[in-house]
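Observation: inputs received (chain + magnesium ion).
Thought: call the complex predictor directly.
Action: predict_structure
Action Input:
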Amino acid sequence: MAKLTDPITILKGVGPNKAKVLAQLNIFTLRDLICHFPRAYEDRTRLVPIEKLETDKPACFRAMVMNTPRTSHIRKGLDLTRVQVADHTARLSLTFFNNRFAAEQLRYGQEYIFYGAVSGDFVGYSMTNPVFETLDSTPVTTRRILPIYPLTAGLTNAALMKLIRQAMAICDTPAEVIPESVRNQYGILPAHRAYQAIHEPSSMEEAELAKRRLIFEEFFIFSAGLSLMRASRAEKKVEPYANLNLKPFLGSLPFSLTGAQRRAIDEIVRDLGRGAPMNRLVQGDVGSGKTMVAAAAAYLAATNRKQAALMAPTEILAEQHYTSLSRLFTPLGIRVSLLTGSMSVKEKKSVRAAIEAGETDLVVGTHALITGATVFQDLGLVIADEQHRFGVGQRGALSAKGTDPHLLVMSATPIPRTLALLMYGDLEVSIIDELPPGRETVDTFLVTEAYRPRINAFIRRQVEEGHQCYVVCPAVEENGELNLKAATEWAEVLQQTVFPDLGVALLHGQMKGSEKEAVMGRFSKGQADILVATTVIEVGVDVPNATLMVIEDADRFGLSQLHQLRGRVGRGKAKSYCILTTHNRNPETVQRLKAFCKTNDGFKIAEEDLKMRGPGDFFGSRQSGLPAFQVASLSMDLQTLKDAQAASAAWIDTEGTADTPEATALRQRIGDLFSRTQGVMN
Ligand code: ADP
Ligand code: MG
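Observation:
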């Protein structure tokens, strides 16, 4: 018997070349092969009389060969074989191109099962290149449900079917991870049957059942993992913070907190005083003031002689948090330092030394730096800002660092409830559902290219009133075929020809960290009037003097992304605007963008976005921190998700740590899944 982890090269017919082809599909081991599931099926079980065959609809039929096949050589490289077949309803003429096999196999007077589509719509229509099998053969291409696999160049569906069959014959399918009681309760197929049936279903119903089982399995493993993480963190003991006095901090703020901010802070204070590590998600729309909530937590860590780390997804954001938090904390005697990739090796070294020696209280930096080599003297609190880039695996990795810090995750995007449940099943949630007073909604307009002169005039007017503008483009460099506004070129056009007298700056993700910071620094100090950028400014950037956001080719962005971008304006006292441009005339697209113009409610937008794009794209590619579900689709399989969640939670509570084969296999799969997720994130 072979093992699931064995390389595919142990299979007959898989040499180095075939292995390379399979690698294109991420198939390296027998497990990968067995878990390469069909994307669709063709139902070839039904036999249709020839008379009932429909044009261009492939189907199976049983027919007798009525003459000896005749092959004619048309020209070099083109042989044509013709043969007549018939059943009791009609005759049909078949044509094969370059098919020696057909010419040799089809015998006058014999019956076969064919599968193909007729063409032509007159009596005596014909069929080209059908596949066929003898009546006594094992059904491979006819009389069965044919799985249709995702393929790549150099690999046919038939070849892949054969390999999978071979693998299944020499090796067990992945072990059962769902206990029998759960399978019975939810009508779930056992693992072995499901893996068999997903590849070779005996009916479409069985294929459906197999698929449902595999979806359930994915969700079950994932939610069981979250439950385990939550349970193991809940068991950990930390010293409760003795000093929970926030008065000096609150007294130093230039404004009073909103009710929602106060409620979130209260919940955090309770967590920190309790003696188990905090696991909290703070969810609030853009501009709702999450930074201050994080600052309150960091303040308490510092006054309880613990270190805190604030992790931001980008250097720009880290820099910005560093600036505002040091302004706030330095007068209070709290030492703040910055750690980012673009600092010199020497600077990083000296900051790291200070962190290790306990000479700094709050470190602000990018994820990689803080989760990486940095050693803390006594890390008591980790705050992850703009969490959707902070995956489940990374949360696990933190506790694995040996410390059990309190964890506070700040959500940038309002996440639909269902998705939040899945991503943050291991966290408690605080919601900030109130914006600081005096915020007006951002008026949003959708326009076409015809409005260009008016857009330009509008930009100029904002600048003349002392404000600043963002112009966001979907690409960095000119992309001829798509005709998208590219940041680099567009910045040049604006500076050279449209606004030669104004300051136009450029910011995109391919610039070096230090360059980005310099540009951002100039813009936030008001030294540039217009910032042309890509979505690098999507998260967190806070320049309250900016009042206009122009988003070019807005149809290229997801709604949640547009909402994030729009959230960059309307952060000060002045009325703010957002202008979306588009060339796209697709009615659905226009409808979607118009709907966006009408609402400022991030939650509504998020739900809409999830429905439309699915979770993979929800946060931009690969940034959700979710594992890539292979079969499951979060927008379509919600009920299964809920079932799997309930089942896994109940099961973890009762026997998740038991030594049953299922529990052991489950823990193994959780480990694989979470380490893979982390791999994607880093
Ligand atoms: P986000 O929730 O998007 O992270 P920020 O924390 O960046 O929001 O806050 C947005 C802006 O609102 C900042 O300029 C911040 O100083 C300001 N702010 C935060 N809380 C309040 C408040 N209670 N009253 C007035 N302004 C506030
Ligand atoms: Mg923020």
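Thought: report the result.
Final Answer: The chain has five domains: 8-40+162-205, 46-143, 215-235+629-654+661-681, 247-432, 443-599. The first strand starts at residue 40 and ends at 43.
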